[in-house]
Specification:
Layout (H helix, E strand, L loop, with lengths): L6 H7 L7 E4 L6 H11 L3 E4 H8 L2 E5 L4 E4 L1 H14 L2 E4 L13 E6 L2 H10 L4 H12 L2 H9 L5 E5 L3 H20 L3
Parallel strand pairs: 1-5, 1-6, 2-5, 6-7
Antiparallel strand pairs: 3-4
Helix pairs in contact: 2-8, 5-6
The structure holds adenosine-5'-triphosphate.
The site of adenosine-5'-triphosphate has 16 residues, from helix 2 and helix 8.
């Protein structure tokens, strides 16, 4: 069969020359930090969804209580569709069920121990309901559940994100995954 793509490859790999990776997890688990490190060492185009939403106004206004923009999912997906279709995107967002399943070849869910996450969120100025809701989200493993409900289990990878050593190991793990994706045609 050689290296020619089969119909199956087109289905599984979406016909992309390079994979798309989503890095997700509760706010503060280290998505942006990991993506910056990763994008410096692998040929993926980093897209921070929070920044994109602000920059392109892909929202329905400001939420005072949460101090954040109310995402407009349709506008966001329309904005991303063509870029993702080309492949080679590294997306960073604290949710995963809003995206079409076909977009991603790997969904990384970062996880942080409660006390570590609490300190990070407080250091960032979170308090009140925003702090409580985010802590509960991590304790209940909401994002991991979401990922497992929204994507094939084989595509979902939960990684610890408590320390700089974890981050370095995660960059290595994802880099190795990328190499094997490129060398394995099925
Ligand atoms: N693996 C890690 N080890 C130690 N500190 C980390 C790690 N990952 C992130 N941090 C620190 O935690 C804080 C939050 O990190 P970061 O902004 O990357 O999280 P995030 O998941 O992208 O948050 P958000 O969803 O709000 O954008 C930063 O101060 C960062 O330096």
């Amino acid at each position: 069969m050689g290296n020619e793509a089969t119909d199956d490859d087109m289905g599984v790999r979406g016909g992309r020359a390079a994979p798309n990776i989503l890095v997700t997890g509760t706010p503060g688990t280290g998505k942006t930090s990991l993506c910056h490190q990763l994008a410096a060492s692998v040929p993926l185009q980093y897209i921070n969804i929070g920044d994109l939403v602000k920059e392109k106004e892909l929202h329905d206004g400001w939420d005072e209580e949460y101090q954040s923009w109310n995402l407009n999912e349709d506008k966001l997906c329309d904005e991303l569709e063509d870029r993702v279709a080309e492949g080679g995107c590294l997306l960073d967002y604290h949710g995963c069920e809003l995206f079409p399943e076909r977009w991603f070849d790997l969904v990384v869910v970062l996880q942080t121990d409660n006390s570590v996450l609490y300190d990070r969120l407080v250091a960032r100025g979170y308090s009140g309901r925003k702090l409580e809701d985010n802590m509960e989200c991590e304790i209940m493993q909401v994002i991991l559940e979401e990922a497992r409900e929204s994507y094939e289990h084989s595509k979902v990878l939960a990684l610890p994100s408590n320390s700089v050593e974890d981050m370095e190991q995660n960059v290595e793990t994802i880099s190795q995954w990328l190499k094997s994706w490129k060398s394995n045609p099925s």
